[in-house]
Amino acid sequence: MLRRGLLAWVSRVGGILVLLCCSLSLLYVMTCSPPHSDDPPLSHRAGPNHPSLGGTGPGIGAGAIGPGGAGAGPVQSGGPPGVHSYQVLLQEREEQHRLHISSLKKQIAQLKEALQERSQQLKGVQESLKRAVGGPAEGHEVGAGLQGGGLGDAQGAKSQQTDLQEFLRGQLSKAEVTAGTRLSSEYAVVPFESFTLQRVYQLEMGLTRHPEEKPVRKDKREELGEVLEMALHSLNTPSSEQDSRGAAEKTQTSKVYSPSDFIEGITRTEKDKGTLYELTFRGESSNEFKRLVLFRPFGPLMKVKNEKVDTSSVPINIIVPLSRRTDKFRQFMHNFREVNFKNYTLLQLDEEFSRGRGLDVGARAWKAGNVLLFFCDVDIYFNADFLNTCRLNTQPGKKVFYPVLFSQYNPTLIYGSPEHVPPVEQQLVIKKDTGFWRDFGFGMTCQYRSDFINIGGFDIDIKGWGGEDVHLYRKYLHSNLLVVRAPSRGLFHLWHEKQCADELPPDQYRMCMQSKAMNEASHGQLGMLFFRHEIEAHLRRQKQQQNSNPKKT
């Protein structure tokens, strides 16, 4: 009885659920069915600014497209009103899919390249590991491959560390540390620098031109400090074993070494191997010394970036301040046209000349968005290769470029007389007797306008020439921008007679005179000029001796 009643209750509930489902289905069909209308869809519902149609101006109508429309061509008359909208929409979707496919293909190519690179690295690590271990058995390799991922990662890290240590030991064995190598000539020698606690004695004097100085660069100070600290730690830490000595000869020093015991050190860097340091300390007696040899090996090369840079769409605004000097300006404009520049704008200021003021006005006069600026002078010669270098070494918000230009000596002194001076294009030769790298000049620079504005621009209170470029350079050095400083083989400073006005302040006048002295000729050429009377007297005596002692025939 109870079972029969339960069955009846279940059947009623089932019928009610079936009826409810049918009602919901019927309601869904009625709600979702499209309305019956003769108007074609999307004919006027998209609106003039619908993002899919690209409209930003007037709406679509009268068989024409507004100024901001997609521009799919003229509309055919006689068709339904929505056909053109469908065509535009389909074309946009097709273009989107085409761009997406192109992006996917590019990503696939990059992934393939990365996979090949990783495969080569893994192959190299495995081969070096086999050489170090002597070659594992085949069964051992198979068994290791079947173990868990954690063990495999640990073994991979260990093998990489072993491979790196083997590479660094190889760098030490290849460098000139324990033995020398045969060199082709005296020009192939890598010289040492010597240093003490306070001074560095250097052959490559850099911008300061000091043969001895306190380490100015932060990386050099930290480098030598780290070397001295490690040397003292090694001297004051008892060693468990000493190289090439037996157990009977092992002794523990009673002297505690300090920086005051350091006498001097020498260091040199082989660019492809590493840096060698030899440090000498006072020993326990006056005739005893301690010498430590340290070596910092260079690691293997690492690829940091691989990118394609298109400079065809990067315009450059060249800004040149000018006061008189029309002859130089005529020569500059000739070069200007040679590198395919055609448009220029003249901004005239009726005020006392200031180079920084002129460049600042020229940079701020441009209002058409961010642009690459090249601050130049009228006595500068550049070619198209330099302009590409300018584009490649700048990046808005990241990099500014300060090229080191090649400054030309006085052509009259170089070629002997004004009659023998060739045309300007033939004078642009980079040799020690024709000019020098002007590494103390910071007037030529490439940067984006946004970086120049954000950094604060020039100090326009500086009048005349000189000083404003150094202030701007220091502003960039104190910022987070990367300053690229490198010699540029396509940028030349043409020689001209330099006049240092008496109205200049003492510091600017001194800078002007130093620049004037360096611009005339090389050290050897100036020496020949200084001793020319002595040389001429020697030649006269030689000629007199030849005339007084004629050869017997």
TrEMBL record:
The lineage of its organism: Eukaryota, Metazoa, Chordata, Craniata, Vertebrata. It is found in: Golgi apparatus, Golgi stack membrane. GO terms for molecular function: glucuronosyl-N-acetylgalactosaminyl-proteoglycan 4-beta-N-acetylgalactosaminyltransferase activity; glucuronylgalactosylproteoglycan 4-beta-N-acetylgalactosaminyltransferase activity; metal ion binding. Residues 94-132 form a coiled coil. Pfam families: CHGN. It is a single-pass type II membrane protein. InterPro entries: Chond_GalNAc (IPR008428), CS_glycosyltransferase (IPR051227), Nucleotide-diphossugar_trans (IPR029044). Its EC number is 2.4.1.-. It is an enzyme of class 2 (transferase). GO terms for biological process: chondroitin sulfate proteoglycan biosynthetic process. This is Hexosyltransferase. It comes from Amphiprion ocellaris (Clown anemonefish). Keywords: Coiled coil, Glycoprotein, Golgi apparatus, Membrane, Metal-binding, Signal-anchor, Transferase, Transmembrane, Transmembrane helix.
